[in-house]
Amino acid sequence: MPSMRTCLPVGITAALSTAAFTLSAQAATPAPAPERTAAARCANPSEVLDLTDWKLTLPTGEEEDPAEITQPELAGFSAAPWFRAEGDCGAVRFRAAVNGVTTGGSSYPRAELREMTDGGEDEAAWSTTEGTHTLVVREAFTALPAERPWVVGAQVHGGDDDVTVFRLEGSRLYITDGDDRHHHLVTDDYELGTEFEARFVARDGRIKAYYNGTLETTVSHDGDTNYFKAGAYTQANCGNSDPCTDGNFGEVRISDIDVKHS
Q: What is the total count of domains within the chain?
């Protein structure tokens, strides 16, 4: 018995051949690689800065009793918007609003690190006449409060008062000497968001202050209860800056911080 064959019109045969070739080519071509997932975001500031020997004071908590975060809690701590890592892990933002809680020794709010020792267990206290003590901070002022646009970004503190600080007033950046808040003018045209390196080097009873590697001034100081601080110490409150809301604040961005004692 003769075999049965199905004859298709020439047009359909050609179409099937083309489809088969296309499927074969697709099978031979590797599938495109999946898009890379976005880089992991930093959950905590400790993923950006080494906070081992620091404690944090926030502008939150009870009046004259602000929240303080110490190690080991600080290693996994974040509190937006007052203390948070940037999404790309490039820096940490410190923010203090004019209506924030203050310490008993100040009328101004802060989101600020305080130098510690022994993995954060003890408060640092060193002498300007023994050894060499260095703080290097890469930072930028990113916001100033209304009416009184003053913020401190880094300081040497001694006992119950600051010794010398980097202080921005509007567009004028100063290095202070005790109560003389205009001791040395670094620049009169600072623009918010401009990153710079602040450096303090204390030895032989003097503290040298550097801006982007240049020695700006030297402050004489003899004391043995000194420590470094860095962050946003807003020099305004609801009594001199309006509006009295969370949206009126000082802010500092820190991308690197390092302390050395020798």
A: 1
